[in-house]
## 1
Amino acid sequence: MKSRKLIAAAVAASLIAAPAGWAQQAPPEAQPPAAQDGEVQPRFIWGILINYAISKLSSIVWDIFAGYLQNKLTGGLTSTTGVITQGIISGLVGSSGARLAPRSSVAVAARGADIVVGTPETPLSLSNGKENYQGAHVALILANADGKTFSVRPINDGFKTGERFKLRIVSTFGGELTIENINPHGERRQIYPAGTDQIVSLQPGKETVVPLGEDQFFEFARATGREQLVVNLADPRAVGPAASTNKVYRQDQKYGSNFVQEVTPSTYPHISQAIELQHAN
């Protein structure tokens, strides 16, 4: 096994080989005519075709987002252990379209809106073919003891000292991603990508795992006290007044954690979520 630093000092990245491939589903292209109130019609939401009726229920946001994820996540929404192999990890790295790129904006450097665990207050709607919510999925992909398979964990479960893991991310929008560390002294710094002038550029609707190197994993070790990993994901246009200030709603499931944020035609999503590290005694 090779080894190289990703996070310095208390944080190391273990590197293992991982072969194989994974295909992604192309989104539909056309948008059907708008439906009248209460009328059920086929509609495209986040690029998937559904039977949609204008509704006063805000809970439909989670249902439709889960449907959006069903065909995009390895193992779907039901399997959480023993399904993700080294081969699949390697394929995801090669097929997601994600890449390291120069930072194009200050969006991912700014603090995101408040996160609330619960159901969004405003119902899902469409205006001129545009959804009033954008969403993202984040999960921990942890290496099992056999070194050949990986388990899925929602972010509210956190992770422990010595666990090797990647982050799995899918977003409805093209985003810029950075990972930060807040150490027990409250010091905050970007740890991935290593250069603060870089971000990870994500393609909408593509299952991505980071670190992007197929043989790279995050691993925290040799530290005590409260420590956090912070996931920052933003549309590169979410700068200044163009950044949505609406609450980000989170729903934790066995297959990972889902986020949605209400946006307008002139604002863009910005999600920032901390994940707790549980140090071994």
## 2
Amino acid sequence: MSETRAAYRYALSLLEVAEEFKALDAVGADVDHLGSVLRSSPEFRRFVRSPIIRAEKKRAVMGELFQGKMSDVTYKFLLLLVAKNRAAILPEIVAEFKRLRDERLGIMEVTVRSAVALGAGQEKDLIAHLERVTKKHVRMNASVDASLIGGLALRYGDTVWDGSVRRQLASLRQRLIEGNA
């Protein structure tokens, strides 16, 4: 089974168990914490991915790090991953769990790049517009990209909308080259 497929199945199982035990918020917070630990600690990433470290050692370290500090559902899930020799795909499971949770809760992640920082009012208006258009709750990640020259570019799901001056200039240039201006 491919790693991506296995990560999807484990993440879906964790999500379903969390919903069954009415612990989705707690498990979600635990998974978010695991994600931040994986991002911030290359040592922990190497530890979970190492095929050399025995399951007993991994179980003991997981116990020291997480027992009593996260929900029982999440902790038992980590021990299951170690027992099934699947701890190596923990980073993929974390990403897949977040995606599935957002999908179930009707939350859409939107990435916005703008030439200058958006004001609070502009962000609020953009979020409101996107929520009306998509019929989902929007979680926006905004960043400044001066190379856009002006305007903004956003991405949500498979949709990319580029209203930047840079793209418009590139389009105009292409039309001039083709003689269609």
